[in-house]
Design brief:
The chain has helices spanning 51-63, 72-75, 80-105, 121-124, 151-158, 190-202; strands spanning 2-9, 12-15, 21-26, 29-33, 39-40, 44-45, 110-112, 134-136, 140-144, 164-167, 180-183. The chain is an alpha/beta fold and 205 residues long.
Amino acid sequence: MKLYKYRLDKGYLVPDENGDVTVLINGEFVVIYDKNGNEIKDVKFKYIGNEQIHLNKLKYIAKFINININENVFLAYPTFQERVLIINKYMGKIFEDYVYFLLISKNYKVKREKELYVSLHNFTLSRYHNKPDFIVEDKIVIEAKISKNDYTQTLEYSKYYKRGMVVFPFTGECRVPKGWICVFNVLLDKSRFYSLLEDLLSRSK
């Protein structure tokens, strides 16, 4: 649970440490109180930067899995950096859900976030890449990314699976090991996604 202070300015909430409006964030729930402790409804947060661009992308992806987006969940954070971070994090989650839907709708055998090996993070505090987004037919790995992939992560997975895909909803930056491919614009061209997936599976026998 997090609490932030805001003030009302021309009908919009603006971050202000000395403001008399309190914003409470608890997961995906946002509650707004005035100085008397009364809940305020039907009020909007003012954009700090270009949050709308990120929100529009989020809403676009959300349409493919029939999710309604409440902007206040993301705009309740007082800094632009926090807002974009939480938007992108949620965008990654729902795009991953969309890719999962594409896979199970065609009856592929899918393991989601299955450990490849036991992590020693609790002992070494080092970061381990041991849970790929999807393992399909026990033959290839699929990683769902929003704008850029982590080459070190895919390189680690390639030690266990020689072939894999990194998929993006739009365009992005992608670098992958030998035997892996990058697939862009999956939202607009899912038939190409399936075609490339079948090709990888056929070469992984």
